[in-house]
Amino acid sequence: CNQRCIFCLDSWNQNGTYVPVDELKAFISRGKREGGERLILSGGEASVHPGFIKLIRYGREVGYDWVQTVTNGMLFASPEYARRATVAGLNEVTLSIHGHTAKLHDRLVGLPGAFEKANQAIRNFQALGGVVVNVDVVINKLNVTHLREILDFYMEMGIHEFDLLFIVP
Question: How far is CA 45 from its chain centroid?
Answer without folding.
Answer: 7
